UniProtKB/TrEMBL annotation:
Component of the exocyst complex involved in the docking of exocytic vesicles with fusion sites on the plasma membrane. It comes from Poecilia latipinna (sailfin molly). This is Exocyst complex component. Residues 414-762 form the Exocyst complex subunit EXOC6/Sec15 C-terminal domain. GO terms for cellular component: exocyst; plasma membrane. It comes from the Eukaryota. Residues 49-218 form the Exocyst complex component EXOC6/Sec15 N-terminal domain. InterPro entries: EXOC6/Sec15 (IPR007225), EXOC6/Sec15_C (IPR046361), EXOC6/Sec15_C_dom1 (IPR042045), EXOC6_Sec15_N (IPR048359), EXOC6PINT-1/Sec15/Tip20_C_dom2 (IPR042044). Keywords: Exocytosis, Transport. The keyword Cell inner membrane does not apply. Belongs to the SEC15 family. The lineage of its organism: Eukaryota, Metazoa, Chordata, Craniata, Vertebrata. GO terms for biological process: Golgi to plasma membrane transport; intracellular protein transport; vesicle tethering involved in exocytosis.
Length: 803
């Protein structure tokens, strides 16, 4: 055990010694501490081991010194020999250095002079170089200061860009260059503000001059359209000419002789005026200049947004009409001029600049404007009651649409609006012609047109298509059946067609469409306006039977003239009436309705006149016996009817017959009502006899055929109810009546039991009142009993009918 511990201790001490020899002195502490931390008395053994190691190293050093001692001695000997030579060499070098110093003193002085010259030359070259670097910047800055007052902003910005990117960075270390660099942003903002101010002035100017631009553009479009129409006519007639279009929209024509002709070939000044464009009327340089400036400054988007925003505001102002625009055509023209001018400018900006406005922006602006324009025109046109003004409005809409269509704007909605304006135009025409028709009717004398000479006859037939072989055979003077209003109405209808045709011009519609529009508007005139005027005329209280008869005759001739109106429209439009979709004129139904209304009014007025005569009746219902002659009021009535029915000779047969039958029936009914009047309490036999005489006169009038065409006793049948009733009372044939009642061949078939009962009770009351002593006379008592018996039987018949 002791040997093992000793061995380990020796090994450990060996390791520690190696570690001490191989490590740095600063790290020896921990190693030495490990010796003392070990077994007791271990440091003594380590010290012994250390001493042995030292002695071992001393022996090795001694051996090495003994080995190299001779070489060291030889080296010392050689050094001693070299020292003498070194001292000799040092002396020679010192002498040589002295001689060189003496020889180079002049050269050194000259060299210093040369160095000073070289330094001066270098400084001068540097100065020239720096000055050359500064000169472009200084020159550019001075040039820049001159460009701004000269309104050369784009060149000024380019100069700034060169100064900032090229010249100033080369000499940025100098103070004056730093001042210039500090001034450049301020100058740039100044240019920016000035250009924006110019743009604002431009926007204000263009707002004021839009109407002039629009007026010029619309005038050119109108001339272009007129030229195209002339070219179409020349091509149609075989003279071909080739149109030449200028960039301004002005149209010229090269004809066969090589000359250039305008609408007015001899007026060169007018031609020069007509080729004006938006560029000629408006200076767009502020827009271009401002756009370039903002583009160079890298703020183009701000400029585009500002321009578009301002133009939208101006568009809303342009689209806002004046309150009284609908009163004059100038108001509408100014409104359209401003709109067209606005969009002509926008179209120019769209094509002359790259991206300042886009097609999407202009389309959006146009759609907004189109909706506003349509709403404004709908509102203001509804206030207009002058057809000429509506026609002018239509022309302005067409020119506006053609102008903007030439610039690529869609205008279909404007042409659709024209259909609404056409309806408004037709309404104003109908109102105007309603006044014309009323004036014609009021001024008419409602009597046949007298014709004294053949010239007068030709004059009338030239105005109205009248042909009657029988009247043509008559000698002059003669009378035409219609009154003066007929040719006047016919002429006015043709004038209406012409006026309606004016609206169809320049609408780019086919002949079939124009024909359809003319026929529809003419139908409105006939079925609404003329028909209404006729109906109102017929209902007027001052229109008598004679006038009504003449109105019926007039409507008959106007009805016959409808086919000539259709031919008139066909000649205008060149559309065959056999075309499938051709609208027919409704004049036939219009005049038939008016004629039927007049006929009904004739019947009404005739009955009213009969009622007036009936009101004059003054029967003495208690008379003992009749006067032996008919009543005066009835004879007057019959004379009136005779004279009236003589006027009916010009009426169609059925009309006269119906009027006569209606009058007789009404007279019969009125007489029957007079007998059965509830206020009439008593009737004597004498009154019945007098009444019978009056009815006989009515029957004589009916049998005299006041109006030809009745067959047999047809007209007398109107009084058959009265006749049978009066016969029953005159003959006092109650037994026959009661026995044959209900039989189809009864003699008193038309006598109603209720009617007979009512009349019989009136006679019974009379007998009671007037014959107070009749009860003492046997005949009277028998008659009274008979009456009571008949009354009872009649009442039973009436009760049987009601049950």
């Amino acid at each position: 055990m002791a040997d093992n511990e000793t061995l380990e201790c020796v090994t450990e001490h060996e390791r520690i010694l190696q570690e001490i020899e191989s490590t740095d002195t600063a790290c020896v502490g921990p190693t030495l501490r490990s010796i003392y931390d070990d077994q007791p008395n271990a440091h003594k053994r380590f010290m012994e081991k250390l001493d042995a190691r030292i002695r071992n190293h001393d022996r090795e050093i001694e051996k090495m010194c003994n080995f190299h001692h001779q070489g060291f001695v030889d080296a010392i000997t050689e050094l001693l020999k070299v020292r003498a030579d070194a001292e000799k060499l040092m002396g020679q070098v010192t002498d040589t250095n002295r001689r060189l110093q003496d020889a180079g003193r002049d050269v050194t002085a000259q060299t210093e002079e040369v160095i000073c010259c070289r330094i001066q030359q270098r400084n001068m070259a540097t100065t020239v170089e720096k000055l050359q670097l500064c000169i472009p910047g200084d020159t550019g800055y001075c040039y820049l200061r001159d460009l701004i007052p000269a309104v050369e902003y784009y060149a000024a910005l380019k100069t700034m860009e060169q100064l900032e990117n090229v010249y100033i960075p080369r000499v940025s270390q100098y103070r004056f260059c730093q001042i210039m660099a500090e001034n450049l942003p301020r100058l740039r903002e100044e240019i920016k503000e000035i250009s924006m101010s110019d743009l604002k002035d431009f926007l204000e100017s263009i707002r004021k001059h839009s109407d002039k631009v629009g007026e010029t553009a619309m005038r050119q479009a109108q001339q272009h359209r007129t030229f195209n129409s002339a070219v179409a006519k020349q091509v149609h007639t075989g003279h071909y000419s080739k149109p030449v279009y200028s960039l301004s929209g002005r149209t010229h024509t090269h004809i066969s002789n090589g000359l250039l002709t305008d609408d007015d070939a001899g007026d060169e000044e007018e031609a020069d005026e007509e080729v004006l464009t938006a560029q000629d009327l408006v200076d767009f340089s502020p827009v271009y200049r401002c756009l370039h400036i903002y583009t160079v400054l890298g703020d183009r988007e701000t400029f585009e947004n500002y321009y578009r925003k301002q133009r939208k505001k101006q568009a809303r102002l342009v689209l806002q009409p004046q309150a009284n625009m609908h009163e004059t055509v100038e108001g509408y023209r100014r409104y359209f001029n401003q709109i067209v001018g606005f969009f002509v400018v926008e179209d120019h900006i769209l094509h002359a600049t790259r991206g300042l406005v886009t097609r999407v922006f202009t389309d959006e602006l146009w759609n907004m404007a189109l909706s506003k324009i349509i709403a404004v025109l709908r509102t203001h046109s509804s206030y207009c009651d002058d057809p000429d003004l509506v026609l002018e409005l239509k022309n302005l809409i067409v020119i506006c649409a053609d102008t903007l269509q030439g610039y690529g704007f869609p205008v279909n909605r404007l042409f659709d609006l024209l259909f609404e304006v056409r309806d408004q135009y037709n309404e104003t025409l109908l109102k105007k012609w309603a006044v014309v028709f009323r004036e014609i009717f009021e001024s008419d004398n409602y009597s046949p047109i007298p014709v004294e000479t053949e010239e007068e006859y030709k004059l009338v037939t030239s105005r109205f298509p009248f042909h009657d072989p029988e009247i043509e055979k008559q000698d002059f003077p003669k009378k035409l059946p219609m009154s003066q209003s007929v040719p006047q109405i016919y002429i006015q209808v043709k004038e209406f067609i012409y006026a309606s045709l004016k609206f169809s011009e320049s609408l780019h519609r086919s002949s079939t469409e124009i024909d359809d529009m003319l026929r529809k508007s003419t139908n409105l005139l006939l079925t609404r306006t003329l028909s209404s005027c006729l109906q109102n005329l017929i209902k007027k209280p001052h229109i008598g039977l004679t006038e009504l008869v003449q109105i019926i005759i007039n409507t008959t001739h106007l009805e016959q003239a409808c086919k000539y109106l259709e031919e008139f429209i066909t000649n205008i439009t060149n559309v065959s009436p056999e075309t499938v979709h051709t609208t027919r004129l409704y004049g036939l139904s219009t005049f038939k309705d008016a004629r039927h209304a007049a006929e009904g009014e004739i019947y009404t007025k005739l009955n009213q006149k009969i009622d007036e005569f009936i009101q004059l009746a003054d029967y003495e219902w208690s008379m003992a016996e009749s006067d032996g002659r008919a009543s005066g009021y009835l004879m007057d009535l019959i004379n009136f009817l005779r004279s009236t029915f003589q006027v009916f000779t010009h009426l169609p047969g059925k009309v006269a017959q119906t009027a006569c039958m209606s009058a007789c029936k009404h007279l019969s009914t009125s007489l029957m009502q007079m007998l059965l009047d509830t206020e009439l309490k008593q009737i004597s036999m004498g009154a019945i006899q007098q009444f019978n005489l009056d009815v006989m006169q009515c029957e004589l009038f009916a049998s005299s055929e006041p109006v030809p065409g009745f067959q047999g006793d047809t007209l007398q049948l109107a009084f058959i109810d009265l006749r049978q009733l009066l016969d029953l009372f005159m003959v006092w044939d109650w037994s026959t009546y009661l026995a044959d009642y209900g039989q189809p061949n009864s003699k008193y078939l038309r006598v109603n039991p209720a009617t007979a009962l009512a009349l019989l009770e009136k006679m019974k009351d009379t007998n009671k009142k007037n014959n107070i002593f009749s009860q003492f006379r046997k005949n009277d008592r028998d008659k009274q009993k008979l009456i009571e018996t008949v009354v009872k039987q009649l009442r039973s018949l009436v009760n049987g009918m009601s049950s």
